[in-house]
Amino acid sequence: MEITINNYFEKRESLFKWRSNTSLINKVVLAFLVACFTGIMAQIVIPLPWTPVPVTGQTFAVLMAGILLGRYWGGISQALYVAVGLLGVPWFAGMTGGFMVLFSANAGYLIGFILAALFLGYFTDKYLESRRFLPMMGLMLIANFILIYVPGLIQLGIWSQSVTGTMPGLWNLLIMGFIPFIVGDLFKIGGAAALTKAITPKKANNGEEVGRSKYWVF
User: Fold this and answer.
1) For the residues 1-28, what does the mean pLDDT come to?
2) pLDDT at 211
3) Which of 36, 78, 121, 204 could pair covalently with 66 via S-S, beta carbons 3.0-4.6 A apart?
């Protein structure tokens, strides 16, 4: 059993070192594969009758993108997801796609996907401490509830005003685009943080900072 566990630790360390040092072509391919994974998860849709924003599975893929690909490339994978979808590939939530999605109620969340993946990729690659469960869960809470939801709610408000002629109040906006998703997001964040702890190496092999940074608050 010890040999098997040691082999697993060695494999995950070598895999993460490889993904950081591999060729540009391989990084592009990996980013596209993660974009495809995001598109697949986006088809897990639970529509809600009082809002144009559905519950989807894609935020799990977004949270994992930065973990799997690291700084820059996690964000690039989500930029690819958005760009390819805008070109017409129907892999946004509910098999939608095309340029007009930019003017939809959900467009702000797509921008947030890129920001969240960049944020998590940066911390995953720079700080070993971030790969533990509690620090990563804290980072994912920030990424999910601030970096995704703030641009999402801003665009949702703009869309609602363009449709109804009036800007919704803060409470109505939260009911449409935030509050119904909290419980599901917490489950996704917990699962993503646990998976991160399991698959990421805990030894520095690519210039990561060891020990607790002065910026940690977790």
Assistant:
1) 82
2) 59
3) 121
